[in-house]
Amino acid sequence: MVAMCNLVSREQLHKDIIKTAEITHAHPEAIGGAFLIARTTQLAICGVEKIGIIQTLCNESDLAVYKSKLVIMRL
Length: 75
Known about the structure:
By secondary structure, the chain is mostly helical. The chain has helices at 10-21, 28-45, 50-60, 64-74.
């Protein structure tokens, strides 16, 4: 829902996700995962193709647990 209300700014999306996810997701990896899901939604709504979404998420993810999986998907 947050991604659908924020289609332009990655930075604002990140701030909004932190505000909403902290309520139920106290762990940093959970907040990071929530951001990746929202960012995926944002990119898909904007018409970015699957490989572009994966590449963007791989470049933007700074959590090893997610980045390693995204790198595998990119191959």
